[in-house]
Structure formats: C-alpha cells, structure tokens
Fold GntR family transcriptional regulator.
Amino acid sequence: MPKIPTRGGTVPTMERLDFNRPVVDQIYSALKSAILSREFFPGQAVSENEIGQSFNSSRTPVREALSRLRDDGLIVTLPSRGTYVSKLSEKHIRSAQFIREALEIAAVRKLCQTGISVDSKQEIEHALSGQRVAMQRGDRKLFRVHDDQFHSALAAATGLERLETLLIREKAGLDRLRALAITDEAHMSGLLTEHEAVYGGLTAGDEEGAVEELRKHLRRVLGVLSQVFDAHQEYFE
C-alpha cells in the first residue's frame, strides 16, 4: 500500500472559468497542467474544497475532473486517508512507453501504406510550427502543448477514433517525466528535429525510415529516466 504523503503546498491560482465552455474540461485541463508543471507536486494532498474555492465552482465538476485525473493515473485516492497527486513509478513509466510505442508505430505504418490527407498534413505542420515558436521563446509549457498536438494529429490522421483516446491515456503515464526532461532549448531542438524526421519519412512514404525515427524518438524518454530519478528521487514511489 502506498505511504501516506505529507501535505504539500497551496492550491495553485487558477484562471476564471469561462461558462460558455464545458466547466469540467477547464478544471481538468488546469489541474493536469498544474501537475505537469509541478505546481501540484508528486505526493501533495489534493483538497476538493480548496480546488472548488479556487475555481469558484461547485463540487460536482471538481469531482468529475478529479475522476478523470484518477483514470489518467495522475492522482490517487487512499481510503479514509484522502486524495493525493500520485508519485512517479518506473514500472508504470516503462509499461506506458511500451504500449505507446506499439500504438504509434502501428499508426505510422498505416499512414505510410494508406497515405495522409491534406487536412491531416496541415494539422501536423501546425504542431511543428508551434513547437518552433515555443522553442524560440523558451516556453517549455507551450512546447509540450504542441508536442502533444503533433502526436495527436498522427493518431487522428489514421481515422481510428479510439486510437487517439488510447494514446492520450497511455501518454499520461509519461507526461510528468517528459515535463521534467524538457529542461532547455537544446532538448526542445532535439525533440523537434526528431518530429520533423518522422514527418519527413511519412510524407516520403518511407515506412521503415519513419518507424525507425519514431522508435528512437519515443525511447528518448527512457534515456532520461535515471537522470530524472537521481535529480528528483522524492517524486518516485
């Protein structure tokens, strides 16, 4: 059974809700972003009441947002003990990476064999362009947003609706490690170069080339696992 984490810092300041958009989605996105950016750090206690007050929201959408984060593996609820930001697990990270690699390689193989639509190309190129801008600004958060868009666009391009959903869920197990690993412009530049190589192979119909570039890219996160563990042992189980 997991140890009871010590209570952490205060709830991050959240943006005001836009009631013209789904409230649950906004709370979920803001909390996930706070976890990835370590405003909510691994092991920190999560208070439903404090979150509701921060958003000026009722409990129902907060509970739904927390349920989604629980499904993502980003928070854990211990009976009679409370809810906490989950700690990182090397076992779960390796499992998520294995599943993600299998799914994304299958997607790229399919796209190389069937071709990719003009609309899908535009989505992928938009994500790449966004990464370039974020890198130039040194904006790691924005870079991660467009990084996610790149991989989501690849999955969406297959036309397989469940694929994108599955990938988002499995990527959640890697997102915090990825956020810790993206530390400087050189690292962002390397990721962008790898994305461009995958897309180049894809548009050229070079299936094996695209797959090899993608495999190398996806395994990069495991290459920094030991470094992140050494630097942030307190974040791991």
Q: What stands out?
A: The longest helix spans residues 90-114. Residues 152 and 168 are 8 Å apart (CA to CA). Residues 23-85 form a domain with the Arc Repressor Mutant, subunit A fold (CATH 1.10.10.10).
